[in-house]
Design goal:
alpha+beta; 2 domains; 146 residues; 3 helices; single chain
Amino acid sequence: MVPLRSPRNAALTAAATMAVGGLVWYLFRRPRPTAEEIERTRRDLLAANGRITDGSIIEAPFTQQDDSSSSRQVIVYNYRIAGVSYEAAQDVASLGELVRDIRTDLPIQVRYEPHNPANSIVVAEAWSGLRLSSTHPHPDAQANSD
């Protein structure tokens, strides 16, 4: 036990207590990332470091044109790695312009994490494995043609 009769020991104990208290306060009060931020980080990581394989779309998003406000915002796709078939879905609600007029009759490219092949994407802000119709080419293709 540290004798607290010395002013130096008392000051060090108080400083250490305040430091631990500040750390605990920060850990409980720090801002947590939102679900959208976590998903964006996952897409960015896979777009930058993921391996590519071929896949196909099972179900593409569509928007109903009537008065109801329901619309599908999910791409369901499948792919095969090392003899194992995977079926996955990606929410593309935040990637609206990148997923207009998808060609479901053509193969797609899927980016996946090598150590966890079930973690995959077909489109991100910086990369797309989708085939789009010729009337709406991918924005990157337009930028490269200039």
